[in-house]
Amino acid sequence: MIRVLIADDHPIVRAGLSGIVADAHDIRVVGDAATGDELLARVAETAADLVLLDVSMPGPGVVSLLEQLRTLHPSVRVLVLSVHPEEQYATRALRAGARGYLTKDHSPAELVAAVRKVHAGGRYVSDTLAERLASELGGDVRVAHERLSDREFEVLCLLGSGRTVTEIAGLLALSVKTVSTYRTRILAKLPAESNAELVRYVVTHGLLR
């Protein structure tokens, strides 16, 4: 039996996902969570084999959350679900420890197949994403934000959502000086010279969390 924990901040989505996977004879939902912090607590107290993780939950960013899960609960596999196209988050999620990435426009049957494959030790990615990953291994970086480190990318998304440097420092448990340094690096790597242009870049590329 595959024991699944569902993490999504929308109750209707959690209920829908529970219904889909519960219809499979070999999958059982053992819990759910609405925030990143709640997920970490649930995983610590629940015997789960796999987490279905929404990419845009409140709390730690998806990369930070995946890294914590990989460190604290290495036996728990994670399948990331997202409304965002693969080119926006998939590569970073997989690098951070996700075993698969599935956009929410896939069918229920594909979701169940992905859960089974990831639980069995495989990785689940679409053909398009597999081709993209192969291109990146060959050094083909297509958009500017893919040159950012994971932490720089997280700070970019928060700046793009209108957060101040001070607010970001509090959210990420960093000093204001450190966040300011990340901002400077981001501006050097992206075609932007101000916070307003960073916001425009984030919106244009659909990176809002």
Characterization of the model:
53% of the residues lie in helices and 13% in strands. The protein is of the alpha/beta class and 209 residues long. It folds into two domains: 2-137, Response regulator (Rossmann fold); 144-204, Winged helix-like DNA-binding domain superfamily/Winged helix DNA-binding domain (Arc Repressor Mutant, subunit A). α8 packs across α9. The longest helix has 14 residues, at 176-189. The radius of gyration is 17 Å and the shape is globular. The two termini are 33 Å apart. The mean pLDDT is 86.
What layout of secondary structure does this protein have?
Layout: E1 2-7, H1 11-22, E2 27-33, H2 36-45, E3 50-54, H3 62-72, E4 77-82, H4 86-96, E5 100-103, H5 108-119, H6 127-137, H7 150-160, H8 165-172, H9 176-189, H10 195-204
Helix pairs in contact: 7-9, 7-10, 8-9
Which key terms come to mind for this protein?
209 residues; alpha/beta; Rossmann fold; Arc Repressor Mutant, subunit A; five-stranded parallel β-sheet; 10 helices; 13% strand
Order of helices and strands: EHEHEHEHEHHHHHH
Please give the CATH architecture of the largest domain: 3-Layer(aba) Sandwich
Gross morphology = globular
Rg, alpha carbons:
17 Å
The largest β sheet comes out as: 5 strands, parallel
Find the CATH superfamily of the largest domain.
Answer: Response regulator
Tell me the span between the first and last alpha carbons: 33 Å
Class by alpha and beta content: alpha/beta
Number of strands: 5
The average pLDDT is: 86
Strand arrangement, largest sheet?
A: 2-1-3-4-5
